[in-house]
Write a structure and sequence with these properties.
Layout: E1 34-38, H1 49-54, E2 59-63, E3 67-70, E4 75-76, E5 81-84, E6 90-94, E7 97-99, E8 103-108, E9 111-115, E10 123-125, E11 130-135, E12 138-142, E13 147-149, E14 154-159, E15 162-164, E16 170-172, E17 185-189, E18 192-194, E19 202-203, E20 207-211, E21 214-216, E22 223-225, E23 230-234, E24 237-239, E25 247-249, E26 264-268, E27 271-273, H2 306-315
Parallel strand pairs: 1-2, 2-5, 3-6, 4-7, 5-8, 6-9, 7-10, 8-11, 9-12, 10-13, 11-14, 12-15, 13-16, 14-17, 15-18, 16-19, 17-20, 18-21, 19-22, 20-23, 21-24, 22-25, 23-26, 24-27
């Protein structure tokens, strides 16, 4: 089935690289780097994740320990890094990951819970970051967003992630004054938004392709299109709880325009369950929404169904799967805590 489209990547450590679908498909992470082993749950110091993420060379980061890493400050990730949680159970709390002016990042099979403080996101992507893939992560209960993508960060895929116990789930494009965010392009697929209140996602300016996601029991709306945004919603399952409005439109004025505008949503093959109301702007704006085929040739999709719903609930979020062996032999320099 579609959600298993790249299950074969779990047979080899580095097979994840370049296997994302959608806008983040070119992300290679630390494909050409050494393996760095995290051997401590400490926030910093030898063998810590922070030590590996600050290094400038490409690294494929794995974990030799399981448990909770309490981050005292944002953990900044430098370019060409894979943070691969397969084989262990790693949870971040306190603060989150920050992807700032970096490229080629893969984040896989991690948990984020209990981030505290003003402007604290689970994964914060800004500014000018690109070629990023976030896969099979579980995120809940942060004081700000779970994943926020702003300030001209683009070419990003979020897949098979689980979102719960949260209000402002995913913000893409932070402010109508940030007109440079017109470059933002994000694909979100096979994710499970489980009772999150709003922003699944909320988008300004950019382009978002949503497909084969399951969103249920939202608190205000499921998806929001604001100033000049384009959302292509394809074969998703929207299952309402008390609130029935699926698509919301907020009108704002871009800093370089005189008139106010909302965004546009194009819905194709979506399932609206339990009284979910599409609230589409019928006959208005659909021609303004991009089609994914303009940007990538293929993606694996199936019609919304009960079997797809069940599969997403099983496959989204952190998975108890073994870490694959590394089948690439390269002579790397001695980097201390690396294998």
């Amino acid at each position: 089935m579609a959600a298993l489209l790249y299950a074969d990547v779990d047979f080899s450590l580095r097979s994840l690289a370049s296997r994302a679908e959608g806008f983040g498909r070119f992300a290679i992470g630390g494909l050409h780097g050494a393996v760095y082993s995290v051997t401590t749950l400490a926030d910093d110091g030898p063998g810590s994740l922070r030590e590996g993420c600050r290094r400038k060379e490409p690294l494929w980061i794995v974990f030799e320990v399981s448990g909770t890493i309490n981050l005292n400050s944002y953990l900044s990730v430098s370019s060409y890094k894979t943070i691969d949680g397969r084989g262990q159970r790693i949870k971040f709390t306190g603060k989150g990951l920050r992807l700032k002016e970096c490229e080629h990042i893969i984040i896989c099979n991690l948990e984020f819970e209990g981030g505290r403080g003003h402007d604290v996101d689970g994964i914060q992507i800004k500014p000018n970051s690109k070629h990023i893939w976030i896969d099979r992560c579980s995120l809940r209960d942060y004081d700000d967003g779970l994943i926020d993508i702003t300030r001209q960060s683009t070419d990003i895929t979020v897949s098979r992630c689980y979102f719960a116990e949260h209000d402002k789930t995913m913000l893409i494009g932070a402010d109508p004054s940030h007109v440079g965010d017109r470059c933002i392009r994000v694909t979100i697929h096979h994710c499970f938004f489980d009772g999150t209140r709003q922003r699944q996602p909320r988008l300004r300016f950019g382009k978002v392709h949503l497909y084969n996601n399951y969103t249920r029991n939202w608190g205000i709306y499921a998806v929001c299109a604001s100033v000049e945004s384009q959302i292509f919603s394809q074969c998703n399952i929207y299952e309402a709880g008390v609130k029935k409005k699926t698509f919301e439109y907020y009108t704002e004025k871009a800093a370089d325009k005189e008139e106010t505008r909302s965004g546009w949503v194009r819905s194709e093959g979506d399932a609206f369950l339990s009284g979910a109301q599409p609230c589409l702007l019928t006959g208005v704006g659909e021609e303004c929404v991009f089609h994914p085929s303009e940007y990538y040739p293929t993606w694996t999709i199936e019609p919304p169904s009960e079997s797809l719903k069940a599969l997403i609930q099983i496959c989204a979020g952190w998975q108890a799967i073994p870490r694959p062996a590394d089948d690439i032999t390269v002579n790397f320099p001695d980097l201390g805590n690396n294998n």
